[in-house]
């Protein structure tokens, strides 16, 4: 794979690793499973305030985890496309793939900053 594409992959990986670290990835996955189980409980809305807090935390974690997974899947697909383009000798397709990786790296950097600036209390009023 070309050097510029490899650099974009490295940027994406670094951003995703930082986001995972800030989320405490394994804990976040377990917590999302717990919250999903709570949402299935028919007594959840017996206490509306507590239910809203559960739903807010669930949405935040689901969005963060979903974004990481989406970027990672897009990266893998684009890398595969670039490798296929190189095997086929299709420079134009390889360039398009590299441009896609650059855009994905930029998105990963933006999402990294957003994740680092967000926290449990960030959705609260000042």
Structural class: mainly alpha
Q: What would you say the CATH architecture is?
A: Up-down Bundle
Radius of gyration: 19 Å
Query: Outline, from the CA principal axes?
Result: elongated
Largest sheet properties: none
- The percentage helix is over 70%
* CATH first level: Mainly Alpha
> What is the CATH H-level superfamily?
Release factor
- Kindly state the mean pLDDT as a whole number? 91
Percent of residues in beta strands: under 5%
Number of domains: 1
CATH topology: Methane Monooxygenase Hydroxylase, Chain G, domain 1
Q: Secondary structure elements and their pairing?
A:
Blueprint: H1 3-23, H2 25-40, H3 48-88, H4 91-117
Helix pairs in contact: 1-2, 1-3, 1-4, 2-3, 3-4
Describe the structure.
The protein has 126 residues and is an all-alpha fold. It has a single domain, classed as Release factor (Methane Monooxygenase Hydroxylase, Chain G, domain 1, Up-down Bundle), CATH 1.20.58. The protein has helices at 3-23, 25-40, 48-88, 91-117. Helix 1 (3-23) packs across helix 2, helix 1 runs antiparallel to helix 3 (48-88) and helix 2 crosses helix 3 (48-88). The longest helix is centred in the middle third of the chain and has 41 residues, at 48-88.
């Amino acid at each position: 794979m070309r050097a510029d594409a490899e650099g974009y992959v490295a940027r994406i990986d670094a951003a995703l690793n930082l986001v995972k670290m800030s989320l405490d990835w394994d804990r976040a996955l377990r917590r999302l499973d717990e919250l999903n189980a709570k949402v299935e409980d028919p007594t959840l809305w017996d206490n509306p305030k507590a239910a809203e807090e559960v739903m807010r935390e669930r949405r935040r974690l689901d969005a963060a985890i979903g974004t990481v997974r989406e970027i990672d899947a897009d990266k893998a697909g684009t890398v595969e496309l670039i490798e296929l383009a190189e095997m086929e000798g299709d420079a134009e397709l390889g360039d398009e793939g590299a441009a896609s990786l650059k855009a994905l790296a930029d998105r990963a950097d933006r999402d990294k900053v957003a994740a680092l600036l967000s926290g449990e209390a960030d959705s609260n009023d000042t």
